[in-house]
Amino acid sequence: MLFQPAIIALLLASSVSALMLLASGPFALSLIRHWDIRSGSERQLGLERRTYLMSTLLAFVFATQLVALLLFIFNADKMSVMFIKLLDPGLKAFFPINKWHVPPPFKPRQQQS
Fold this sequence. Notes:
Elements: H1 5-34, H2 42-86, H3 89-94
């Protein structure tokens, strides 16, 4: 199940996003330490330029994660059939499902007379 193409794509998207966020961590620390909005020094201008680069990087990470969310929903729907087929016949008595793979609503208890 781990070697399904959709799962590999999800793992790859998460790994790339995590690596990009880890790569932006040292810049975020230097930005916190050295940012001075009143300064017009070369360091301040370099920080501002790199800030645009990092904001583009974060926009790419967010877009990647949005696509990964849609892929996750698609994959969960596609793989639900695999989990239903794995149920043991004895467990199907405890977890009854209909032809749409949805458990039926519980019936209310009957009054004893």
